[in-house]
Amino acid sequence: MKKFIKRKKFQRIGIVLAMSVLLTACGNSNDKSTGTESANSGSTESAASSDSSTGGRDVINQVSLLQGLTFGDYNGSVPVSQLKKLGDIGIGTFDALNGELIMLEGTVYRAASDGTIEVVPDDEKIPFANVTFFDSDEVIKLNNIDNVNTLKAELDKKVNEAGKNRFYMIKAEGTFTKMDVRSELPQKKPYKPLAKVLETDQTFFNYENIKGTVVGLYCPEYMNDLNAVGWHFHFISEDRKAGGHVLDLSATETNVTMDRTDYFSMTLPDNEMFNEFDLTIDQSEDIKKVEKGDDK
């Protein structure tokens, strides 16, 4: 079985205290850093650029907390132009929860609530995202993927082999016999929590025999106060006419490229809504609903 290989690597441990949460991240010697930064309207650009210049390519760069998003903080804090300096692949959403974000090969796409896909302008702002610069560590071929849980199980085998306490970004490419995705309608203030939004304002799209790419992020268990642990998938079709947050899929054959990433950096928004959240509240059930697209 092929092993993950990283170039000129040694391991070290960094401990970062952020929002009263203890984070653990592992890294290598290629001019990398691990950090947590707070961004405001005047410093977002410089903070984002600093993350990119000091962290190198091997960093999962996160904008805000998923838990902030689930509480209802849909206020964009980082413009698309800066997100592109932090990575060339990733997933997230947009200001006012206006659709699902898919970044692929350096282009940021919106999968909108009406099912259309558009390239997003550089001045639009992002309330939540995870991006990195993609470097292939292993390519695998998966056959007979009958649902999204089968895909997760196959990917978990590789994660357990290479290190379950690290981050992974993947591209799964092929023709999908089934692809079920969702997006959301843009919201108006005062914003409702995300689980409430999904009760009424999510739209579903079901495709068959569609060619495209699944962009996936894996977060380890210790990230449960900052993001959804395990796998999170977004999809965009090859013709750039369909996409969204993946709820289910199947494929006879798909080629998966995996990038193991050893550093984590986060930029926090500075707005009144986020600053007043009680982030000690357990949101695990709401996050499960959000991930699965449950509307009840």
3D structure, described in words:
- The protein is α+β, with helices and mostly antiparallel strands.
- The strands form 4 sheets. The chain has an 8-stranded mixed sheet with strand order 3-17-4-11-6-7-8-9, covered by helices on one side. Strands 12, 13, 14, 15 and 16 form a 5-stranded antiparallel sheet that branches. Strands 1-2 form a two-stranded antiparallel sheet.
- Helix 1 runs parallel beside helix 3.
- The protein is globular and about 50 Å long.
- The relative contact order is 0.23.
- The N terminus is likely disordered.
Task: Fill in the keyword field for this structure.
globular, 8-stranded mixed sheet, 296 residues, 20% helix, disordered N terminus, alpha+beta
In short:
By secondary structure, the chain is of the alpha+beta class. It is built from 7 helices and 17 strands.
Element layout with pairings:
Blueprint: E1 12-18, E2 21-27, E3 35-38, H1 44-55, E4 59-63, H2 66-71, E5 78-79, H3 80-86, E6 89-93, E7 100-104, E8 107-111, E9 117-119, E10 125-126, E11 128-132, E12 138-145, H4 148-162, E13 167-184, H5 194-200, E14 202-219, E15 230-237, E16 243-261, E17 263-268, H6 272-275, H7 284-292
Parallel strand pairs: 3-17, 4-17
Antiparallel strand pairs: 1-2, 4-11, 5-10, 6-7, 6-11, 7-8, 8-9, 12-16, 13-14, 13-16, 14-15, 15-16
Helix pairs in contact: 1-3
